[in-house]
UniProtKB/TrEMBL annotation:
The gene is lpd. Keywords: Cytoplasm, Disulfide bond, FAD, Flavoprotein, NAD, Nucleotide-binding, Oxidoreductase, Redox-active center. One of its GO terms (cellular component) is cytoplasm. Belongs to the class-I pyridine nucleotide-disulfide oxidoreductase family. The active site is at residue 452. Homodimer. This is Dihydrolipoyl dehydrogenase. It comes from Marinobacter litoralis. GO terms for molecular function: dihydrolipoyl dehydrogenase (NADH) activity; flavin adenine dinucleotide binding. It catalyses: N(6)-[(R)-dihydrolipoyl]-L-lysyl-[protein] + NAD(+) = N(6)-[(R)-lipoyl]-L-lysyl-[protein] + NADH + H(+). NAD(+) binds at residues 189-196, 212, 279. Binds 1 FAD per subunit. It is found in: Cytoplasm. The active site is a redox-active disulfide bond.
Length: 480
């Protein structure tokens, strides 16, 4: 087999494997390089962080623990008597591993079905669109390509006050592998990852404290939604402390002694485990030769234009290593766009319509702009909200916390932001994404017939509320 390809992709995560499959479907001779090796030291592992130690395993644990919490606390009020409900952590972890194995194995099957060549080893971009691959034995081989797509992903940020030790102080990956429920769990960072992982272990009985350096909770989220979510998280027992700057962590007698400063001064806390979830950084270690022609920006991301082209001819980059949100679905959309552009088509990713989700309970999801952003930009807008407390299906499901919020341009009525905190927010937000992708107005949604009874009726009512016409909740009086 020739070592010359139309497309070589480095990285088999959601950006890379999707780009490789799409390129192959478009008739391009495609290879995908991935260095991840299974525990046996031989087998290649596809799927990247998302499938192996990120989105998928964390959702598997979130789903199990949510069901456990419901059975432990909510069933009785619904007339279901399930006494002495217990959790088998080992079985839960075994199930999680099974789901991961099924999905990652599925990618190998998709590569085979689409004719993608899988190359096991560490890929490095050389000058002139050449890719050097180093295998597990240290042997190197060089491949040539007309186009190279860089999709090496990201890795957790490690902070000096709390270096990872793999046992007591762990990153997000380590937090998915606890063999027992820690009595006291500390989490550094109240972002998406910190909230999700904190929720998992809190539901199983851990006493969870989340320390967040920023003064506001979820500053990137619409603050009306964030405040509602914070109220519900605290009610669940999550101890979330904002404005808490960590200064040190030391393991003594099998406990993590954490020191931090907040508005009250210097503080100390002891935990059985500490999860550091302060963000992720682009993983570009050993990815680029000095003369590759690819440049990094001031934050360490690969510099690309809005079509994911780097400054080196024929070299593209997608996903967590480039600007924009570090989201699997964003990486996949970029991968598809690049593959199609290589094949001569002209698609574009609409970065204004990328949904964000926090898979806690309640879930938090949003697309578009927040009220705070629009205020800062001086935009004139109207807002419509509808609480799940007034939704019949939410009542039936015993999940009445939260709301749907729609923000529309005051002049054109075009939807500018769509925000949800509550049950199935991750699914409901898709309605906002579709509406915004098609340039819908709030009136378009208000004139749409929604099935009854559904959670989605709250979208309909929020859209009606934008113009002060909600049916099932009192509308705010307009100022004269």
């Amino acid at each position: 087999m020739s070592d010359k390809y139309d497309v070589i992709v480095i990285g088999a995560g959601p950006g890379g494997y999707v780009a490789a499959i799409k390129a192959a479907q478009l008739g391009l001779k495609t290879a995908c390089v991935e260095s991840w090796t299974a525990e046996d030291g031989k087998s290649q592992v596809l799927g990247g962080t998302c499938l192996n130690v990120g989105c998928i395993p964390s959702k598997a644990l979130l789903e199990v623990t949510h069901k456990f919490e419901e059975a432990s606390h909510d069933y009785e009020s619904m007339g279901i008597l399930a006494k002495s409900v217990d959790i088998d952590v080992a079985k839960m972890m075994e199930r999680k591993a099974g789901i991961v194995k099924q999905l990652t194995g599925g990618i190998a099957g998709l590569f085979k079905a689409n004719g993608v060549t899988s190359i096991h080893g560490h890929g490095k971009l050389l000058n002139g669109r050449k890719v050097e691959v180093t295998d597990k034995d240290g042997k190197t081989k060089t491949y040539e390509a007309e186009n190279v797509i860089l999709a090496s992903g990201s890795k957790p940020v490690e902070i000096p006050p709390a270096p990872f030790d793999g046992e007591y102080i762990v990153d997000s990956e380590g937090a998915l592998e606890f063999t027992e429920v820690p009595k006291r769990l500390g989490v550094i960072g109240a972002g998406v990852i910190g909230l999700e992982l904190g929720s998992v272990w809190a539901r199983l009985g851990a006493e969870v404290t989340i320390l967040e350096a920023q003064d506001s909770f979820l500053p990137v989220v619409d603050q009306q939604i964030a405040k509602d979510a914070l109220k519900q998280f605290k009610k669940q027992g999550l101890n979330i402390i904002t404005g808490a700057r960590m200064t040190g962590a030391e393991v003594k007698r099998k406990l993590v002694n954490v020191s931090y400063e907040d508005s009250k001064g210097k503080q100390e806390a002891k935990f059985d485990k500490l999860i550091v979830a302060v963000g992720r950084r682009p993983y570009t270690d050993g990815l680029l030769a000095e003369d590759s022609g690819v440049n990094l920006d001031e934050r360490g991301f690969i510099f690309v234009d809005d079509k994911c082209k780097t400054e080196a001819p024929g070299v593209w980059a997608v996903g967590d290593i480039v600007r924009g949100p570090m989201l699997a679905h964003k990486a996949s959309e970029e991968g598809v766009m690049v593959a199609e552009r290589i094949a001569g088509h002209k698609p574009q990713v609409n970065y204004d319509c990328i949904p964000n989700v926090i898979y806690t309970a309640p879930e938090v999801a949003w697309v578009g702009k927040t009220e705070e952003q629009l205020k800062a930009e001086g935009e004139d807008y109207n807002v419509g909200t509808f609480p799940f407390a007034a939704n019949g299906r939410a009542m039936a499901a015993n999940a009445t916390g939260g709301m749907v919020k729609i923000i529309a341009d005051a002049k054109t009525d075009r939807i500018l932001g769509f925000h949800v905190v509550g049950p199935q927010a991750s699914e409901i937000v898709a309605q906002g994404v579709i509406a915004m992708e098609f340039g819908s107005t709030a009136e378009d949604l208000a004139l749409t017939c929604f099935a009854h009874p559904t959670l989605s009726e709250s979208v309909h009512e929020a859209a009606l509320a934008v113009a002060g016409g909600a049916i099932h909740v009192a509308n705010r009086r307009k100022k004269k």
